[in-house]
Structure formats: C-alpha cells, structure tokens
Amino acid sequence: MDSDYGVPRELSDLQKKRTLYQPQIPPCLEGTTVRVEFGDGTTAADSAGAHVISHAFPHTFGQPLAHFLRATSKVPNAQIITEHPVIRVGVVFSGRQSPGGHNVIWGLYSAIKIHNNNSVLLGFVGGTEGLFAQKTLEITNEVLSSYKNQGGYDLLGRTVDQIRTTEQVNAAMTSCQALKLDGLVIIGGVTSNTDAAQLAETFAESKCSTKVVGVPVTLNGDLRNQFVEANVGFDTICKVNSQLISNVCTDALSAEKYYYFIRLMGRKASHVALECALQSHPNMVVLGEEVTASKLTLFDITKQISDAVQARAEQDKYHGVVLIPEGLVESIPELYALLQEIHALHGQGISADKISGHLSPWASALFEFLPPFIRRQLLLYPESDDSAQLSQIETEKLLAQLVENELNKRMKEGKYKGKKFNAICHFFGYQARGSLPSKFDCDYAYVLGHICYHVLAAGLNGYMATVTNLKSPVNKWKCGAAPITAMMTVKRWSRGPGANPIGKPAVHPVTVDLKGKAYELLRQNSTSFLFDDIYRNPGPLQFDGPGVDAKVLTLSVEDQDYMGRIKLLQEYLDKVLTLSVEDQDYMGRIKLLQEYLDKVKYIVKPGCSQDVLKAALSAMASVTEVLSVMSTSSNAHGLL
Amino acid sequence: MDSDYGVPRELSDLQKKRTLYQPQIPPCLEGTTVRVEFGDGTTAADSAGAHVISHAFPHTFGQPLAHFLRATSKVPNAQIITEHPVIRVGVVFSGRQSPGGHNVIWGLYSAIKIHNNNSVLLGFVGGTEGLFAQKTLEITNEVLSSYKNQGGYDLLGRTVDQIRTTEQVNAAMTSCQALKLDGLVIIGGVTSNTDAAQLAETFAESKCSTKVVGVPVTLNGDLRNQFVEANVGFDTICKVNSQLISNVCTDALSAEKYYYFIRLMGRKASHVALECALQSHPNMVVLGEEVTASKLTLFDITKQISDAVQARAEQDKYHGVVLIPEGLVESIPELYALLQEIHALHGQGISADKISGHLSPWASALFEFLPPFIRRQLLLYPESDDSAQLSQIETEKLLAQLVENELNKRMKEGKYKGKKFNAICHFFGYQARGSLPSKFDCDYAYVLGHICYHVLAAGLNGYMATVTNLKSPVNKWKCGAAPITAMMTVKRWSRGPGANPIGKPAVHPVTVDLKGKAYELLRQNSTSFLFDDIYRNPGPLQFDGPGVDAKVLTLSVEDQDYMGRIKLLQEYLDKVLTLSVEDQDYMGRIKLLQEYLDKVKYIVKPGCSQDVLKAALSAMASVTEVLSVMSTSSNAHGLL
C-alpha cells in the first residue's frame, strides 16, 4: 500500500499554480544563524496538577520557554548558534489529516537544507505504523514538488495515530536509534502531542539522543493554550465549511421552504461551529459547550429549536439553517450516559445486536424512544480513544426528526399554526478536510516546520514549535517553542475499560470559552441571526486578489497576547526591583520585598493561567506606576 | 414572506468585491441599435414529432432562427431596429435556483435601460405564485446592487415553478394584461421553458400582446440541443462539486481506509456526474445513462462495484471514491418499477404506511429485500412532476450497504481475502446550489439577459435566448434566439395518474450521449481512474488570477457547432444552385435539381438533428467540390 504515498501527483492548473507559491518566513528565521533566548522555566496552568506533571515528566518538566530572535535584536544573553553539523531528522503524520500538513514538512526540509545541505530529512511512510516499522522516504525537493501548498496527507499517509503503549514507544525508540535520528518531528493534535511529550521523556530517561518536537496541526482548533494561538488547518476548514454553509443559507432564502440541519466537524470542542457561525450567520447554532454548561437534555434542545421555528413561522418564515458540531451527541447528558453503557457492554464483548437487551432500565427506555437509524449508529463500536464514532452518528437527523415530531404535536394541539416543517440534513466533514490549504495555513505550517529545525539546533527536547502574534502579517510573527509539559493539565478519566488511569497528565482539547469574546460576539447577534436572515457568504477560498489574507474571526477577536504579557510582567518585576533598590535605607524591607517578587515570579512562571497572569500584570502595573511616581518626585525634590 | 425577497443583503468582503465585477457583452449586443438577421424557418429534431408539434403550436411553430449582428457585419436583409419605444417587461424565476440567475435579471435590466431609460422591468416576487398574484418589485439599480454576480434566487424567490394548468395560464395572462407587459421573461430549465412555449402559443392565440421569452438556466445542464450549448449554473455547480469531490479523494488517499460514495445532483441526466468525474478523476462513476442503456439491475451494479473493490484490494488498496447521480435510482429498472407502483398507490390515496401491503408480489419481495432506511425514503410522496423525491433517497447509502453485504458474503466464501470494507456516504446537493456564480456563469447569464431585450425588440414570441461559440472568449460569442418549439420532441409519458397525455410535445431533458466525446474521454481513462488514483483537484472556485477562465470540459470537448454548420450548409446549397444555373441547356434537369435542393433545405431546416445535418453537409460539400471543379475546368477549357 505504500506505493500510493509520496508519488508525483497529477495536478490541476490551480494546483500547479499553488505549488509555485513560496511562503514567507519572519525575520527571526532568516539566515543561517539561530539565535535563541531562554525565558523563565515553565510551570503548568493547572497549579494543582503541576506537581503530578513534574513527577510524570522529571526530565522534561519545567524547561524554559525559547524565543527565536532576529539578527538585529539586542539580547545580551541569547544563545547564538552558527555551526550547523549534519543532522538526521524524521517526521511523521499522527492524527487526522489537516490542510497544511504538507507544508510543515516542506518548511522543515527547507530549514534543514539551508543550514546544512548534507543534513537528511526522512519521512515515515504510513504514519505511526511506518515509524514503528522503519519505513521511510527521503524527502527531497523532487519528492516535495507536487505536494507544496497542497492538501491531504498523501505525501506520507497516516495510520493509527498512536505512540502510547510500551510496545509502540519502544518501537519508536528502536527506529530512531536504528536510523540515527537527531530529531523526530510529530505532526498532530492534542493526543499526538501528548504522545510526543511522553516519547521525549522516555528518550531523555533512556539516554536516547533523538530530540522530539511537536507541531500543532489539527483542524479541530482545540490545541490552544498560553503558547499556541492557532492550529494548522483550522483556517482552511472554517473557510471551506463557511462557504458551504453560506451557500445553503442562500439556498434556504431562495425557496423559503426548508430548514437545513448541518453537522460540522468538532468532537470535543465546537470551535469550527463557532467560527463558521460568525462567518456565515446561520439562524441557529447549538454548541456542545453551551449544552454541557447548561446541562441541556435532548428534550430541552428540541424545545429550543422548535420554539425558534415557531417564532419564525409567526413571522411567516419557513426556512432556516441550524448548525451543530458532531460532538454534540456526547454533550447531551442522557445520550452520553447511554453511550457509556453501550461502550461498556462492547468492552464486555457483547455483540451490537444483543446490547439493547443488557441496558439498564432507564437507558433502555431512552434507547427505545430514539428513531431506529440513530439506535443503529449509537451501537457502532467505539473508536480507539473510546469515544463514539461521531462522524457516523447523524445527530442532525435526530434533532430534525424530534423537532418535526414536536411541531406536529403542537399543531395537533392547536399551538403551532404554521406550515408543515421540512428539514434537510447535511454532514460537512470529509469534503473540507482534503482541501487546498488557505494562504494562512500554507504560511503558518511552513513557518512551524522551519521553527522545528531551530528547536533541534538549540538541542531542545519535548517542545512544541510555536508562533504568536498570528493576527499580524507574517513579518511580525514571533517564533518560539514551549515545553509540551507546560501545556498539560491533569484530568480524571473514567471512560471505558481501556481508559487512562485517573490523573494522567495530558494536553487536553480546549473547549469554546463561553466567557470569551468570540462567543460573546455570537450571543450579541443571536437574536438578529435567528430572525433577520442576515446570512453572509464569505465565498470560496481565494488564492489571489484582496481577501486572500482574511483570517478566522476567532483569532482576531480573542485576546491571546499571553506571551507579550509574560514579557511585560518580567519587565515590571525588574523595574520594581530597580526602583526599590534606590531606597537603600531599609535593608530588611528590601529583602522581604525581593521574596515577594520571587514569589510572584514563581506563581507567574510561563505556563500559568491567563487569569493569574492578567491579575499579576494589573497589580504590578499599578505598583510600578506608584513607585515610579514616588521615586521620580522624591528624586526631583531631593526629599529622600 | 415576501419581505425577505429583494431586500439589500449584508455582504462579505468577497461578495462586495464581486458586486463590482462588470460582465462583458459581445459586440453584437453593443450600442443602441438592434440588428437581427432571420434564418430559415425551423422544424424539430424529431421529424416524426414535427407534425404533432406543429399542430399543438400552430402560431409559434416553424418560426425562423434569429441572429443578432454586430454593427460592422454586412448582411443586406438584416432588420435594423433603431427606435426603442418605452416597454414594460416582467421577469420570473421558475425552477430550482441555479448560480447566475440574478445576472439574467441584471443583464435584462441593463439592456432595457440602455435602449430606453423610461422602460420598466418588473420582477415577480415569489416565483410563479407571484406571477399569478401580480406581486411585483420594480427592478432598479439600487435593488440590484447587492445581488449582482451573487448566487441564489433571493432577489425574487421561487415557488411552484409551474405555469401549466388552464388556471395558471389564465392567471399569468391576466397578470400580463393587467400590468400591460410587452414581454415576459421566464428563467428556468426544460419544464419551465416548455411552459414558456405553451404560454407564448396561448398568448398568440388569445391576441395577448405580451411576448414570452425563455432563458436556459438550470444547474442540471440538461437543456441542451442544436441551439443551446450550455445552461447557466452548470459551470459553477460542477466547479464547486469537483472541488469537494477532489477534497474527498485527497482525504481517501491520506488515510487509505475508506470508500466514499458520493451522490450528486442530476435527476433525469448525469451531466454533473460526468463533468465532475472528468474534473476530479474519482475511481468510479456510475451514470444513469449507462445503467439505462445496459439495463443494469441493482445486483449488477453492486457486483460491478464489489468487483472493483476486490480488484483494488488485490493491489492492497482499501480506499476509493465512487460517484453516482441522484437520478440513478430511477434508472435501475426494478427500482423504477417499484417506484411506479408506489406512486400509483399514492395516487389512489393510500397512505405511506399502508402501501407496502398493496404492492404486487414481485415489488413486495424487492421492497422487503431493501434496507429499512431506503424503504422509508421510497415511500415518500412524489414531487409535483410525479418523479420520486430524489434528493431524499439515499441511493449512495443503499449501494454502499449492498457492496458491504456482498463483500462480507465473498469473505465468508473465501473469495474476498482483503480487509473489511468501510464506506462513508455523502450527498453533494444544496451546498453548491447557492454558490457565488463562476465568472463564466456571471458572463453567460448577463449576456442572455441582454439578448432577451433584443428578442423583445425584434417582436419575437415563444423564443429562447441563445449564445453559441461559448468555448471562445466573450467577444467571440454569437447571440441569437430560437423558437422553443424547435427544441421540442414528442415522447410517450406513461407515469402516474397526473401524467401528461401520451404524445404531448415538450422540451425534454437531454441525457449524456454515450457516443459523445466527453463520455468517450471518461471511458478511455476509466481503468486508469479505477486503479491508479490519479485524483486531480481543480481547487476552489477562483475569481482572480489565472484559471478564472477555465470552462467545463464537456463544453470544450463536445462538438457543438450546429449553428455554424447550418450556415455553411445554406451557403453550399446556394452555391450548387449558382453553379448549376450556368448549365442552362437542360431546363428540365434544373427544375428537378431545384426540387432536390428544396427537399434538402426542407429536411435540414434549423432544428433538424445534428446527425442529419452532418450527413447533409458532408454530401453537399462533395457535390459542391465536384461541381466547382467541373465548372471551373469547363469554363477554363471552353468545352461547354
């Protein structure tokens, strides 16, 4: 089967044109000198969990942040790397394909070759299975030629997306040693990067010299934290899906007779649904996070949508568009509990056709209430991570049918007097995933690939390549790397027989922040979206002309400048110290103050939560200001 | 509900940019003088049916072709129209929304206003229902401003898409008279244009002065004939769908574990599936026309796909993409017969849940064999034209399931030794229909709208606006109009209780020509498509940069120069006559010859079939050549 991967592809005219696009790199990555400045040692956002994480990752926890600097920057203690010996690097796709993945490999290849033309990049063919089996393809410019700026993962393929069991970890280590790899780059989402961190720790412990670097590539957009603003692929996925949703909105408005229920990708988090709603202004969107937060039942959601349909009918409107994320089914408490029972029964080896007989009375009652098609889908064997086969569960059809039943009931009771409710259902999943990547994803992926080389050149292990200030143009992007352990949290896992032990640290998917600005924007407009049909069509993805630089709205509205704040805070702390030092009469107090400052520094180590950081920053800003004013006036008036 | 139509829309940046795009018009439409040349009177391609058609359309059958000429063309008998009194025109959307529809209205509006700024264009709000109810919106530049080059039909909306019953025809006539309309432009596909022809005939008979003009707008691409090369919307639909199919192909190739079964729009004809296959190179495509031609049963199709999956498994390939048109279900003989029985029972007023008890034994056996989900879908009440609710019948899921069953059976029997077959199904319907129209569709629709004015200015009734030479740039397009009756054929209809009487003339959907070049191209590559995964991604629709002028392949490869041939043949006939006239000794022969020539002229009247035309052309070319040589030599040698 490997013969399909990495072969030259027949390209359409547009694809050929795209292969000629050369992504920019920010100034800090230019040239052949790597300049790295190390920040403070990192901790974890979950301070309670930091202890657990540090125990699980003794070799890789607490490492400092790394910032890559431009040639002109004046940072006295930066490490300057001018010698670039030959290195051998391996790269593997782990996780669902995401537009832009190929450009990580291209960027990595370019950076490796710029710094030493004799260095080698090996791609593992067939995903993690290829890694375990040492199946490689040497990446060359020729191999890359028909994959530059192209979608899919078909340059190398992907398979089980796991490096987790002792057997898998050992196989990976054996491969890295046999192939004499200096570095291994893992391209994936939250679980693959958790695996990357574990592999880095194991390598460090086993004195395996291969350094492991992770790259945040997942169309779900849920690998976000203090260090990671966005994921490769999310921009493209949202643009392609927004186009399709908008087309459906236009269609709804033209005939005015159908309600469209559209299920979007997004398993643990509803970022895609949120962004697409902000782009295309459908009448309704039900986010998994809202359902979880309000503990909405299937009945509640049905009632909400039915009420909306009824309210629109009173305005003589019989069309509309409703978005839901595929993960919604696991957010609805009673369906989640039912799925848990079903999965447990699967785990006991009970076959799908017998499971309904083994359900608890309440679960059985719910199961029998559901339409036959959804029963069959709920009975599907769970995925390898024990979650339901969400792509196969047609929650949009379930909701459409329940809403129809509800409206028919209301009609019989004389409560709903409108026309018959007609629904058409869609699942927008795979048709976006293989898309040509947007300009943003091409650039972002290429730059991340470039950074991976810098991380390896700096000898770092267990880091993720990061870019911040992404809302600005590429030449303003800030490149760095953060230890993956600093992105971890510790959660209880209680699912199924194959579940992780309780309290295992991991990079967890970040859900939509219901207090965040993007969600606020949605809520502010929700009544208008519901009633006024202010549909908006961002149109097909463009590669030329104005609009090509449009970025996802959630990136622009969310306040993500964590890295900037960390730097600013450190400047405040230094300033407080400097200012205080002038007041040399009170040695005891000075000492006490320094202890306070150290304590603040410790609490707000990179990795702490954004809220803690903001509070510290606000406090320190005012302290600094007061002290500045005081010391200026005392100096000026010579009152000291 | 009307309040939603025609209101200014909130537009995205790209949409705003598109509103600024000004389509070109060909030279023959420029200026304020309309120059029209009339060709020979038309007949119908189906010479047996011509008699029936002429009886059904005594006032509008046999009218001549109209060609609109540029100012510089030297045609002595062209009609030159320089005076343009104020006219009042109505326009209505009839039929499913198709990208570009809005530009027909814009083009018509522009042409009307250029020729007389006091003329008025009224849009009927709410489709044909608006026409019957005299609900209008005066089209102005302001109204148009947020609809130029935009998708959907939400400027005016559409409803029942029928002007057929005596009641409907009378209501339409009353509206036209009440609103003092000089012209009525009907935008739609085959059925709407058949209705337009009927309306024109009725108006002519009733001395109603409103002239009716049809415009070929249907994303199915099945309103094609000697005069009509392409339909507005088809280009966009194929491009949007090809992008999505290609994305899915890329996805399949990245993970190599799924077969994707994709159902595309295309009810009576599989043009969309054919074009998309030529654009994106999926592994398989099953066209309704192939199934009809070979009388393939459900079992045959299942076997063909299963064989293909098995053959690929032998090459260690477990992924693939299969396209089918939504009309496939009506092409499979036994399913068609089953649907006929079901629809007849619906017609007898039997409710859906009781129908299965009334089926004939064989139909009942087939029905029980089918999976429950498809049974429920087959039982849906038929559409207004008595066809099945094709958008709701998940034929792709049926085939995927039957193939899975077949492969499981083969596996048990030891005949199939590959991995388990996994299918994922998609329906690509509504998500393309509301798309921003491609540049081609924007231009073509705008030009057709412009032509409608010229048709009205020339006082023609029952014509369709036509553009030929579409594969060339806009400034080479040839504009004209042909009587809709010349596009009609007479077919037996036997479907259901509400069916047309046998032998009623209509513009019928043209199916894929299995002897045509486009299909030949597909067949030539089918083995390579099946095994070599030479997927091709035309990418998202582009509005800027190179590639923006790409046209559908079926337009480029098909040999469509009927209009050119008609003109050439007439020149030959004239030449033969001229040459023969020189031989004045044999008056009797001359007369006989002229009778022959007249007979040829009669047989090859515009509207005759392409095959007859080609044969005539070939014969006449050789006659002309022989005669030319003979007369030259006899003149030269003075031997006469």
Multimer state: homodimer
Number of strands of chain A: 16
The coarse silhouette of chain A is globular
CATH architecture of the largest domain in chain A: 3-Layer(aba) Sandwich
Low-confidence runs of at least 5 consecutive residues of chain A: 494-501
- Tally of helical segments of chain A: 24
Biggest sheet: strand arrangement of chain A:
3-1-2-14-13-8-7-4-5-6
Structural domains of chain A: how many: 3
Helix content of chain A: 40-55%
CATH topology of the largest domain in chain A: Rossmann fold
> Biggest interface between protein chains, with counts per chain?
A-B, 71 and 73 residues
Share of β-strand residues of chain A: 5-15%
Q: Give the end-to-end Cα distance of chain A, rounded to a whole number of Å.
A: 81 Å
| CATH class category of the largest domain in chain A | Alpha Beta
Rg over CA atoms of chain A? 27 Å
Structural class of chain A: alpha/beta
| Average pLDDT, all residues of chain A | 89
**Major β-sheet annotation of chain A:** 10 strands, mixed
Could you explain the architecture of this structure?
Chains A, B: One of its GO terms (cellular component) is cytosol. Chains A, B: Pfam families: PFK. Chains A, B: Its main location: cytoplasm. Chains A, B: Belongs to the phosphofructokinase type A (PFKA) family. PPi-dependent PFK group II subfamily. Clade 'Long' sub-subfamily. The structure is a homodimer of 640-residue chains. Chain A has 640 residues and is of the alpha/beta class. Chain A has three domains: 2-233 and 437-506, Rossmann fold; 234-330 and 396-432 and 513-556, Phosphofructokinase domain (Rossmann fold), CATH 3.40.50; 562-639, no CATH class. Chain A is built from 24 helices and 16 strands. Chain A has helices at residues 13-19, 47-56, 101-115, 127-133, 141-144, 166-178, 190-205, 234-255, 271-280, 288-294, 298-314, 328-331, 333-347, 352-355, 361-369, 372-378, 395-412, 430-433, 439-457, 517-532, 553-557, 562-581, 587-603, 610-637, and strands at 34-41, 64-68, 79-81, 88-93, 120-124, 136-138, 183-188, 211-216, 259-264, 284-285, 320-325, 423-428, 463-468, 478-483, 489-490, 505-506. In chain A, the strands form three sheets. Chain A has a ten-stranded mixed β-sheet, with helices on both faces. The longest helix of chain A has 28 residues, at 610-637. The radius of gyration of chain A is 27 Å and the shape is globular. In chain A, 52% of the residues are buried. At the A-B interface, α1, α8, β12 and α18 of A face α1, α8, β12 and α18 of B.
